[in-house]
Specification:
Layout: E1 2-14, E2 22-31, E3 34-40, H1 41-44, E4 48-55, E5 60-63, E6 65-70, H2 86-100, H3 103-119, E7 122-129, H4 135-148, E8 151-158, H5 175-188, E9 195-197, E10 199-201, H6 209-222, E11 226-230, H7 234-244, H8 248-254, E12 262-266, H9 272-281, E13 284-287, H10 289-294, H11 302-307, E14 312-314, H12 327-342, H13 350-364, E15 382-385, H14 398-405, E16 411-416, E17 419-423, E18 426-427, H15 432-450
Parallel strand pairs: 1-4, 1-5, 6-7, 7-8, 8-9, 8-10, 10-11, 11-12, 12-13, 13-14
Antiparallel strand pairs: 1-2, 2-3, 5-15, 15-16, 16-17, 17-18
Helix pairs in contact: 2-15, 3-4, 3-15, 5-6, 12-13, 12-14, 13-14
Length: 465
Amino acid sequence: MEKADILLSHALIVTQDAKRTILPESSIVIKDNRIYTIGPSALIDSSFEAETIIDLQGKIVFPGLINTHDHLFQVATKGLGEDMAVQDWVTVVTAPTASNITPEEMYFVCLNGCLELIHSGVTSVIDMNYMAYTFGLHDENIHAIKDSGLRGRYTSIISDYGLMYGVPQSLIRPTDWFIDQYEQLVSKYPPNERMAVWVAVGAPWTVTGEGLDQSLAFSKRTGTPMVMHIGENWVDNHCSLDRFGMNSVPYLEKIGFLRPELLAIHCVTLNDEDIALFVKNDVRVSYNPVSNMYLGSGIPPMMKIQKAGLTIGLGVDGAGSNNSQDMIETLKVAALLQKVAAGDASVVNAQQILDWATLGGAKILGLENEIGSIEIGKIADLFVIAPNSPKVVPIHDPVATLVYSCGQENVEMTIANGKILMKDKIIQHFNEKDIVKKCQDISLDLADRCGSNSKVKRSWKGNTA
C-alpha cells in the first residue's frame, strides 16, 4: 500500500475544476501539502495507508475560500461603529484603535480574527493594516497570520495627506517614512507562497503626488502587487474632483496606477467609463458586500464588472465594518445584494459566487495554478461542510446549499497547505477559549484607553455615559 499523510474518504467533493465537476462518494489523498490523487472511495481507500484517515460520509468538501480584503486589527472594534457614516467611523473608532494598539494586543486580536476565518472555511487572507506606528505592529500582525496557518498577504496603508478630507492626523506620516517601512518589510519577509508583503494606498486622495509616485515605483522595483480602496462611497469621487479635477479612476489611469498588479477594493461608485479603464488595464476587484451595507456605502456594479471580464474576489473587510469575519455569510449577502440591485433574481447564481470566492481569489493572489480548486497536484486547501442540520437540509444542489443555506456553524473542518487547522469544529493548534478571552479583555481595555467606546453605552460593564 502507498503511504500518504491524509485520506479524506466517502465525501461529496465540489472540485471547482474547469468543468465544475462534483464527485459523489469520493476520496482525496494528501501527501506533503499537495493533493496526490482524487477518485471513488471504493478504488482509492484500499490503495493507501495514511497517517490520518477521516470518514466524511454525508459531508461536502469545497476548495478553501479566499478572503481578498480584511483589516484584522479591527476585530477589537466589533460593536463600536454601528450606525456611523464611514468618515465618522474612521475618526471615532478605527483610527484611534490603530494609533493606540500595542504589538502584543495586535497579535491576539489578529489571531482571533484568523480563527474566525478558519471557522468559515477561509484558507487565504489579504490583510491591510492602517498605520504601524512601531515596526513591532507589522511583526505581530504577520506573526498572527503565519501562526494561524492561513496563507497571508500583508499590507499597511500609505497615507501622507488628507487632513482636509477627514483623514486623522494619527494616520498621516511623511512619504519617506512609509517607503522605509516597506523596504524593511520586504527585506525581513521575502515573498513566498505562504506569506508576502504587498503595498497598500488608502485612497487616491489620501496620498500626495510624491506618495503615489514613490509607492508605484517601489511596487514596480520590487515586483510587489498593490492594494487600494477605490470608489468605496461618494466621498471618493468628491475628494478626487476637488483635488484633481476628475474622478478617481480616470486620475489613476492618467498617472499610470491602473495595472494587473492593482487590487481595487469596494468599487461601489464605478461607472461604465471606470469599468472600461479597469478592463484596459486588467485591474482586479475585491467585492465586500457586508461592509458596503454596514457603512451604507452603496452597491457595487458587480454584474457589469463580471460581464466586462474582470477578475473578482470576495472579502469580509474589517470586523469594524462587518462585526464578524464570517466568509460563509459573505457568500449569501454577495448574491442577494446584486439581486436586489438588479431587481432580478436571475442576475447572479450560487456558482458564480463560489467562483469569486475560490477561483477569482486565487487569480488575485497569482496562485490560480496552485489553489482555488480541488485538483491533483494543487495545494491542499479545502474545507468541509457538515450539512446535517435543520438550517441546511434538504440538499438538492451542494453549491446552492453552501451559498444560500449554510452558516459558519456548518463548517466542520478546514485544511490549509495540507495541514488540518480545524477538525470537528475545534481549532487544532491553539486553545481557542484562551484566545477568545484574551481578545475580549484586550478589546475592552483598548476601547477605554483610546476612547473609541465614547458613543457606546455599556451599562453591563458599569459604563452609563
